[in-house]
Amino acid sequence: MTVRPFRFLRLAFAATVLLATISSPALGAGVSVDAATEEQKVAAGQAYKDAKAALDSGNAEQALKGFRKSYDIVASPNSLFMVVRTLQDMGRLAEAFRTNREAIEVADKAAAASPKYQATAAAAHDKEKELSALIGLLTVTVDAPPGWTLRVNGMELPEQAVASAIAGDPGTVSVELSSPQGNETRQIEVAAGAS
């Protein structure tokens, strides 16, 4: 099979970890840990405990919902980091990597205010190194007239994401450019940690 070269797309893989610019499905971060009321802390703590029980019983999908619910109530780095770990356990590595970038920010901020979050911050930084070896980073540059749309694995990329490193799960990645001049698609194999 002959693959015709892109006229408008230039693709390159990054071997080192850069900021991944495609965000995870938006988590509705709750109130900050230092501003949470006792009632909010109790509700978030219960959601966390229920999620942990679901994870321990092998129900990762329910656990993921529970950890997200906990984070939606109180933006605790512990809940968000458990979202990362659960996504990784589910094999959703690129999403785990992207969510971990947020977890690092939240944990670093919380650790600066309270030493009890230092372990979570350190774990999130370690997780970034671990996950970066398991995912591929794709950089797409578009050289096309205005009016184009770019999709990677069916997800439309915002303009600011183009020419930045995008985290992707290992395997086949579909890159599609639609422009007034036509459509072009390429399937690219991405290996874990490969350039």
> Which sequence of SSEs, written as H and E, runs from N to C?
EEHHEHHHEEEEEE
Helical run tally: 5
The biggest sheet amounts to: 4 strands, antiparallel
Specify Rg, calculated over alpha carbons: 19 Å
Mean pLDDT: 84
Please state the oligomeric state of the protein chains shown. Answer: single chain
Silhouette? elongated
Q: Record the strand order, biggest sheet.
A: 6-5-8-9
The secondary structure category is alpha+beta
Termini separation: 23 Å
Low-confidence stretches: 1-26
Number of strand segments = 9
How much helix, percentage-wise, in residues?
A: 40-55%
Give a verbal description of the structure:
With 195 residues, this protein is an alpha+beta fold. Helix content is 42%, strand content 23%. The protein is built from five helices and nine strands. It has a four-stranded antiparallel sheet with strand order 6-5-8-9, with no helix packed on it. The protein has a three-stranded antiparallel sheet with strand order 1-4-7. Strands 2-3 form a two-stranded parallel ribbon. Helix 4 packs antiparallel against helix 5. The longest helix is centred in the middle third of the chain and has 21 residues. The two termini are 23 Å apart. 34% of the residues are buried. The N terminus is likely disordered.
Task: Please give the structural blueprint.
Elements: E1 9-14, E2 31-32, H1 38-56, H2 60-73, E3 74-75, H3 77-89, H4 93-113, H5 118-132, E4 136-142, E5 149-152, E6 155-156, E7 165-168, E8 171-179, E9 182-190
Parallel strand pairs: 2-3
Antiparallel strand pairs: 1-4, 4-7, 5-6, 5-8, 8-9
Helix pairs in contact: 1-2, 2-3, 3-4, 3-5, 4-5
